[in-house]
Design brief:
Layout: H1 7-17, H2 19-28, H3 46-58, E1 69-73, H4 79-88, E2 91-96, H5 99-111, E3 118-122, E4 135-141, H6 150-160, E5 161-170, E6 173-174, H7 184-190, H8 198-208, E7 211-217, H9 219-235, H10 246-264, E8 268-269, E9 271-276
Parallel strand pairs: 1-2, 1-4, 2-3, 4-5
Antiparallel strand pairs: 5-9, 6-8, 7-9
């Protein structure tokens, strides 16, 4: 990677390109998605809860039944794009930093007969490589937190949307009233100085000219999701033998406990944003 690429981007790419991260997420997270889930019961699998989030987000869109072009910012294994392509017939671009995830995404798109509707692009969503007004929907799940240039990401999303287009996304955030200093262990893990907040996204979207259609707070699901991932990891560690290092597993357990603790203390937020240009 060239020296003009910001350090947080390099760190994030290196992390998600690693065999440890790739094998962990693919094995433990359900094989399709890398985002947080909406839980109806404690017995829901991570896969079921993650799929429910996609359905819940898609139901908010005014594009159902219409032809649409979507860009998924930080789309991981392209699982959300496959859902939208299969169930809505939408064309999708997945703009994702990790080349390792993208290779798997392209393979799965082809295996599931959806590669004609989905283009997977290696790239940084702070610099979306498409012209103005290229998309009907900007979609993102739990990815913008990794950028140290969140205002630029929002600006880029606004730029590439057609007039009347929508932005629907989720992101793990710090609560608007989060005390200073309490989330340092989480910041350290994601190699950043802060998280976004509901107030930041709502205010900056308004500044750009977005209309706020809705914000649905779903904070308890963040805590439940990270607790569920920790539970699954501890129950299935043997499946990771030989493909994920012991150091990675122990660091992941530690990191998941920080997220659970922050959620239980009310320091974290999570929800679905819906804006219209």
């Amino acid at each position: 990677m060239s020296d003009d690429i910001p350090e947080p981007v390099k760190v994030t790419k290196s992390y998600y390109d690693s065999d440890d991260a790739h094998n962990f997420y693919y094995t433990i997270w359900g094989g399709e998605d890398l985002h947080l889930g909406i839980y109806e019961s404690e017995n829901d699998s991570i896969y079921e809860a993650s799929r429910r989030t996609i359905r819940h987000m898609a139901d908010r869109s005014g594009l159902a039944g219409k032809k649409a072009r979507v860009i998924d910012l930080g789309g991981g294994f392209s699982g959300s794009a496959r859902y939208l392509a299969r169930n809505y017939g939408w064309e999708a671009v997945v703009l994702n930093l990790s080349e390792t995830e993208n290779r798997r995404g392209r393979k799965m798109n082809k295996e599931q007969g959806l590669d004609h509707l989905i283009e997977v692009v290696d790239g940084n969503f702070a610099h979306i490589p498409y012209p103005d007004e290229s998309f009907d929907l900007v979609w993102s799940q739990d990815a913008i937190l990794h950028s140290d240039k969140r205002p630029k990401v929002m600006e880029e999303a606004y730029r590439v949307l057609k007039p009347g287009g929508e932005m629907i996304f989720t992101d793990p955030m710090q609560a608007d009233d989060c005390p200073e200093g309490v989330l340092e262990p989480i910041y350290e893990r994601i190699h950043l100085q802060s998280l976004g907040s509901p107030g930041f996204y709502r205010d900056y979207a308004k500044k750009l000219g977005f209309e706020e259609v809705s914000y649905e707070p779903l904070d308890p699901h963040l805590t439940r999701h990270y607790a569920r991932v920790l539970q699954e990891l501890e129950a299935r560690e043997h499946e990771l033998d030989g493909v994920v290092s012991r150091e990675y597993i122990e660091n992941m357990k530690k990191g998941l406990r920080h997220w659970v603790e922050g959620g239980k203390n009310g320091y974290l937020a999570w929800g679905i944003f819906h804006f219209r240009k």
